[in-house]
Amino acid sequence: LYQRIISHYGCHTIVELGTSLGVNTLYLARAAGTNVYTFEGAPSLAALARKHFAEARQENIRVIEGDIDITLPEFVAQGVKVDWALIDANHTEAATLRYFNLLLKILHDTSILVIDDIHQSPAMESAWRQVQGHERVRATADLYRCGIAFFSPLLNKQHVVLRM
Description:
single chain, alpha/beta, Rossmann fold
């Protein structure tokens, strides 16, 4: 699904918070013309992910290793505009909202933001509701496993829930 969205909307600069083993990252990186910046706090997981990326010969992935609360603000300060972002790290309300607010600085009107595990806990549901209510978020889709936020001011404010 993520790869199809990225291809359909022509997203080129991608940020993923929470690399883990890098499986999602490989899918994100397969869309033509993408550059993926993936953040991982656990050195052992970052090393495994790098190994997987090398085996898959994906050269458009940059692993940013270290505490996301340190590495993400440093990345944001570079001013790289991001077309697509995935928050899949530190599934707490406070961290999710912290990451969201940082990413807002580098997301633009046609950017897409995905937040994983929005129904994992009451705290994650609260974070998702706050994202939905943010003035820059124009439309959202709740796919249960994840939520997708769109920022285009051309969209009417709306929230859609899809269950399969």
